[in-house]
Amino acid sequence: MDEPDGWYAVALGADIEPSTSAGTRLFGHELVVWRDAAGAVHVWEDRCPHRGMRLSFGFVRGDHIACLYHGWRYDAAGQCRFIPAHPDLAVSPMIRTRTFPCRERAGLIWVRWGSTADDAPEAAPVEAAPVSPLRSLYLDAPAARLAAALGGAGSDGLARLDLAGSPVLVAVQPLAAAASAAHIVVPAAPEAPTADLARLAAACIALRRTIEGAAP
Ligand code: FES
């Protein structure tokens, strides 16, 4: 599948709490999204350089993430700093994971993808207006179909949608050729009543059914 350069939302910020990690995909590539104890987010290839275990199964300690399998520990730059089986070893700088520029804006975690991914632009093209997280929807539908159903995204990477009478912002994540995710936030509604968010969450489910049922 095509992998256009750009910024892509890969999670709701609220879903990645401090000292936790989660696996996701972008264009079929496995990624780990993790947040260190200080709150900074990181997006890496979801693969330990040792024997390939998913780092999303690992443990976050402070500003490091440790692999579940043999405990190799990586710092926030992706450099392996500690190997438990050889605690006195000065770890080679060659042992490092692949990392990607990432940002947290508009309640979403964004990763810069593409051939220029190492040249991180200063800011993801996303407004910084206050938002409330709603939910992430995972669809058995290509990202292009999802984006078309949403009417396309603005220059900030977000589609505007009226959902059950309420405006929402939606970012599309191409998971794989026939799978996508929609990360949905509610603009400027930090005190939205729970019942209202529940109504919107139900509308999200209906939206997913509509898009998955649409003709390819
Ligand atoms: S596979 Fe990760 S430490 Fe061995």
TrEMBL record:
Residues 8-111 form the Rieske domain. It comes from the Bacteria. The keyword Oxidoreductase applies. PROSITE patterns: RIESKE (PS51296), RING_HYDROXYL_ALPHA (PS00570). Gene3D superfamilies: Rieske [2Fe-2S] iron-sulphur domain (2.102.10.10). The keyword Metal-binding applies. Pfam families: Rieske. Transmembrane segments: none annotated. Keywords: 2Fe-2S, Iron, Iron-sulfur, Metal-binding, Oxidoreductase. This is Rieske (2Fe-2S) protein.
